[in-house]
Specification:
Layout (H helix, E strand, L loop, with lengths): L14 H16 L3 H8 L3 E10 L5 E12 L5 E8 L4 H17 L5 E8 L7 H14 L9 E5 L5 H15 L20 H19 L8 E5 L3 H12 L3 E7 L2 E4 L6 H10 L11 E3 L11 E4 L18 E3 L8 H9 L3 E3 L1 H4 L2 H15 L5 H26 L3 H19 L4
Parallel strand pairs: 3-4, 3-5, 6-7, 6-10, 10-11, 11-12
Antiparallel strand pairs: 1-2, 2-4, 7-8, 8-9
Bound molecules: 1,4-dihydronicotinamide adenine dinucleotide and 2-oxoglutaric acid.
Pfam families: ELFV_dehydrog, ELFV_dehydrog_N
Protein name: Glutamate dehydrogenase
Family: Belongs to the Glu/Leu/Phe/Val dehydrogenases family.
């Protein structure tokens, strides 16, 4: 199978190549046929759109938007929409593929997609963001649909943007279609438990891995990069289970307190301070990158891609990395982490709690019924725990890292489904 040589990794890795090099190793381990390999590696649909928006000063600015559907083999495609200046086609392609693998790892009936707009929401008014979100939805109206492609929040978006997307889509259909997006406000059919779902899943993945690595949560220290939706919920929930969170960070910098940060206080500070930790006094401010190299048991990157690279992986002291963010570890860093016996619970497993509860939201919308928070949490915890155990067993069986094991589980499922559907 000559085609499955690991993808050449250039000095500066791009996220799609990083994804492909793991995919290739797992495909090789599974002995995947050439035909299926070619189907699974190629995104099903890639759309780039220009979005003219009237700004508050009356000028018109044109933004670039993307939606990539990587696969719809397991079902309608699913994945968030990111508003960030770093958004580009390769990033969205990688994020879409990760969604395919993620849904397969936790065994939910979705394919993978991702979208994004290159913009800086922090510098835009609410009105400008609303017009941009509605234009994006309108321009991609043929792509979206509760049985076709179902967006959700990602970096820079949340329930507010999902409400606008749902409203814009519903108008085009002449009726309310709340199952077209997930992560909505509760009053519009959002699910109890969705806001905290990704952080909660990270907590379950972290505790499951700590058990295997024989790290006692009550003696463990943890550092968390990113204090947005995922990072702050992971911090809060781990802290409630005895883990001492000694460092947190956001775009303003990192904050360290070896005695443990009061997470509820930090969240309250951020919420009262325009969503920023700038000026937080409950910890000492340290340079952002130093957080990654602290002497902790568990490191949770929960901000963005490619923060753990071949250049810094050797400096990581944590025994366990639990990937709240998508793609925080580059492919070249994997080998260094393995050499140093640092385990990484990969993104496509660790942060799958979000899409799992998005699936529950979609199910509830279609049933026209609301589940209790207890039911949502119980079911998502069970899925996360079962999925972790499955990936762990596969890692033992194939003698591979948890990351490659997760890709093996995912690729096996998607390729088998493709065969059953008569794809070839
Ligand atoms: N929200 C969700 O349900 C899910 C999110 N993810 C992933 O988790 C990551 C974070 O997403 P969210 O928490 O939703 O985004 P968010 O927009 O709520 O928060 C992002 C956080 O990262 C911080 N950040 C940005 N650049 C940083 C830097 N250079 N250094 C340190 N911190 C920095 C921001 O200040 C903010 O605190 C992304 O990779 C996203 O794709 C994955 C699965 C689901
Ligand atoms: O909740 C969802 O549907 C997708 C969340 C997402 O974009 C992700 O898991 O990266």
């Amino acid at each position: 199978m000559g085609y499955i040589e690991p993808a050449p990794i250039k000095d500066k890795e791009n996220p799609f190549e990083s994804m492909m090099s793991r995919f290739n190793v797992a495909a090789q381990a599974l002995g995947l046929e050439d035909e299926i390999y070619n189907v699974l590696k190629s995104p099903y649909k890639q759309v780039i759109v220009s979005l003219p928006v009237t700004m508050d000063d009356g000028s018109i600015r044109v933004f670039e938007g993307y939606r990539v559907i990587h696969s719809n083999i397991l079902g309608p495609s699913k994945g968030g929409v990111r508003f960030d200046m770093g958004v580009n086609l390769d990033e969205v392609k990688a994020l879409a593929a990760w969604m395919t693998w993620k849904c397969a790892v936790v065994d939910i009936p979705y394919g993978g997609a991702k979208g994004g707009i290159k913009c800086n929401p922090r510098e835009m008014s609410a009105g400008e963001i609303e017009r941009l979100t509605r234009t994006y939805t309108q321009t991609l109206i043929e792509i979206f649909g509760p049985d076709r492609d179902i967006p959700a929040p990602d970096m820079g978006t949340g329930p507010r943007e999902m409400a606008w997307m749902m409203d814009e889509y519903s108008k085009s259909q002449g009726m309310t279609v709340n199952a077209v997006v997930t992560g909505k406000p509760l009053v519009l059919g959002g699910s109890l438990g969705r806001t905290e779902a990704t952080g909660r899943g990270v907590m379950i993945a972290a505790l499951s891995a700590m058990e295997k690595r024989k790290i006692n949560p009550f003696n463990a220290k943890c550092a968390i990069q990113g204090f947005g939706n995922v990072g702050s919920w992971a911090a809060k929930l781990l802290n409630e289970r005895g883990v001492k969170v000694v460092a947190i960070s956001d775009i303003s910098g990192a904050y360290f307190n070896d005695n443990g940060i009061d997470i509820n206080e930090a969240i309250a500070y951020r919420d009262a301070n325009k969503n920023s930790l700038e000026g937080y006094k409950g910890a000492e401010k340290i340079p952002g990158d130093e957080l990654l190299f602290l002497d902790v048991d568990v490191l949770i990157p929960a901000a963005m891609e490619d923060v753990i690279t071949k250049d810094n992986a050797g400096k990581i002291k944590a025994k366990l990395i639990v990937e709240g963010a998508n793609g925080p570890t580059s492919a070249k860093a994997d080998a260094i982490l393995k050499e140093n016996d640092v385990w990484a619970v990969p993104d496509i497993l660790a942060n799958a709690g979000g899409v799992t509860v998005s699936y529950f939201e979609w199910v509830q919308n279609r049933l026209g019924y609301k589940w209790t928070r207890e039911r949502v949490n119980r079911r998502s915890d069970r899925i996360m725990k079962t999925s972790f155990n499955h990936v762990y067993e596969v890692s033992q069986q194939y003698d591979v890292s948890l990351r490659i094991a997760a890709y093996i589980v995912a690729i096996d499922k998607v390729s088998n489904t493709y065969k059953y559907r008569g794809g070839f």
